[in-house]
Design a protein that fits this description.
Oligomer: single chain
CATH class of the largest domain: Alpha Beta
Strand order of the largest sheet: 1-12-7-4-2-3
Number of helices: 8
CATH superfamily of the largest domain: NagB/RpiA/CoA transferase-like
Shape: globular
CATH topology of the largest domain: Rossmann fold
Radius of gyration: 21 Å
Distance between the termini: 55 Å
Number of domains: 2
Largest sheet: 6 strands, parallel
Number of strands: 12
Structural class: alpha/beta
CATH architecture of the largest domain: 3-Layer(aba) Sandwich
């Protein structure tokens, strides 16, 4: 007997019930496969330009920051400028994602960079986002060989890159894209702003369980996004 079967068997015994009847199991399997929609908030049902604007609005509301860039090539200089503006060291660990490996990092020679997982001493990490969710300003960050989860958690400052076309209106759309991309990853993080908590005396503390700062770089010319709308 597998561990899963043993655990489910113990739960059934505690509930004093046996395996589900075939008709109930078929109903549950059908519902799981269909991914039915529930009520979708109207605020996320926008054209592309509206989704980007709403996404950026909610990032700012939740103590993060964002910037538009015309293309991927602008990333190194934009990161160098951001770190200088925040009085942060010009050093970062970055995801070994093809988009980042293809960059000409020599355009920002002051940066000290390392591709791979983050370690405890890293103050800044650069991650490639999978999708942005406009209705709440949330980033979808699946784990994988090119997107290590440590980059989402260990550094004090997290920088995430996402294409404007990857910003969807609502959560169901983001999960549809994730399913279409292949097997479900082992870990999927949904990140809305920097890590924060008000558990102690209702006093907001940033960096409670992860990065204290979140900066999102949105790739895609604004005029092109408006035309797509």
């Amino acid at each position: 007997m597998s561990d899963k079967a043993a655990i489910l068997g113990a739960i059934r015994r505690g509930l004093r019930r046996g395996p589900l009847p075939a008709d109930q199991m078929a109903m549950l399997d059908s519902r799981t496969a269909a991914h039915p929609r529930h009520i979708i908030p109207a605020r996320g049902q926008l054209p592309p330009a509206g989704r980007v604007a709403l996404f950026m609005k909610y990032i700012e509301r939740d103590y993060g920051s964002s910037a538009r860039l015309p293309d991927m090539a602008a990333i190194p200089a934009a990161i160098a400028a951001y770190l200088a503006g925040q009085n942060l060291p010009a050093a970062l660990a970055y995801a070994p994602h093809p988009d980042f490996l293809a960059l000409d990092w020599s355009t920002a020679p002051m940066l000290r960079i390392r591709a791979g997982e983050a370690i405890g001493s890293d103050m800044v990490a650069l991650q490639r986002g999978f999708a942005g969710i406009a209705e709440t300003g949330t980033l979808m960050l699946p784990s994988g060989s090119t997107t290590p989860t440590t980059l989402n958690l260990l550094a004090d400052t997290a920088i995430v890159v996402i294409q404007a076309r990857e910003i969807v209106g609502f959560y169901e759309e983001a999960f549809d894209l994730l399913r279409q991309a292949g097997p479900m990853p082992r870990n999927v993080m949904l990140v809305t702003g920097p890590s924060r908590s008000a558990d102690i005396e209702q006093t907001l503390e940033l960096g409670a369980h992860g990065p204290r700062q979140l900066h999102v770089l949105i790739i895609g010319d604004e005029e092109a996004t408006r035309q797509a709308a």
